[in-house]
Design goal:
This protein is of the alpha/beta class. It has one domain: 3-Layer(aba) Sandwich (Rossmann fold), CATH 3.40.50.300. Helices cover 51% and strands 16% of the residues. The chain contains 9 helices and 8 strands. The protein has a 5-stranded parallel beta sheet with strand order 2-6-1-7-8. Helix 7 packs across helix 8.
Length: 214
């Protein structure tokens, strides 16, 4: 079974996806890690084309049910921590706007998700990567709360995060290739004022219902 969890930055999808995977015993995929890998390559080799780098890169994600279990390898180098740097996050958003890069990485993601049980999170899992996913959820939250969560996570100024978030949301929602939106048939969940446990429990119910139908 595949649970596709999409939504904007700060909505809590990474935390929710990891906890849901742990509870269900499913493998966990953060699709954004692949874009971060390409972004890291671009930062290291700024003169090279992002699509060419994505095509040549050997990106491997060892699945796990917790973030500590998941390891990300780029051309044989463990970059699990390196791809979480703020400058990589910003570059990843720009890289993700490339249709060529998305086509390459979507293919890699589909290969990973072809077998087994997964909770996959990102911005286009339910719309592009796996539109036939048994459970599709679009997780959102109030912009102010999203900025507060993100600021606490990275130790940044909340107003700065809010401004950067607004620009990223605009870029993600209006990009030509795979714009951020709720997939057809997706359940839209607002996590504002709700605990991770509450959101996970609601999605777990959706999974149980989907399992009962199959």
């Amino acid at each position: 079974m595949l649970v596709a969890l999409d939504g904007p930055a700060g909505a809590g999808k990474s935390t929710v996806a990891r906890e849901l995977a742990r509870e269900l015993g499913f493998a966990y995929l953060d699709s954004g890690a692949m874009y971060r890998c390409v972004a890291l390559l671009c930062l290291r080799s700024p003169a090279q084309d992002a699509a060419a780098l994505a095509r040549a890169a050997s990106i491997q994600i060892a699945p796990g049910t917790t973030v500590a279990d998941v390891r990300v390898s780029l051309d044989g180098e463990d970059v699990t921590q390196a791809i979480r740097a703020p400058e990589v996050s910003e570059a990843a958003s720009r890289v993700a706007a490339s249709g060529e890069v998305r086509e390459i990485l979507v293919g890699k993601q589909r290969e990973l998700l072809a077998s087994g049980d997964w909770v996959a999170e990102g911005r286009d899992i339910g719309t592009v990567v796996a539109p036939a996913a048994e459970v599709k959820v679009f997780l959102t939250a109030d912009p102010g709360e999203r900025a507060r969560r993100r600021a606490e996570q990275i130790g940044a100024d909340e107003s700065t995060v809010l401004a950067e978030q607004a620009m990223r949301d605009q870029r993600d929602a209006t990009r030509e290739h795979s714009p951020l939106r709720a997939a057809d048939g997706a359940v839209v969940l607002d996590s504002t004022g709700r605990s991770v446990e509450q959101v996970v429990a609601q999605i777990a119910q959706l999974v149980a219902r989907a399992g009962a139908r199959t």
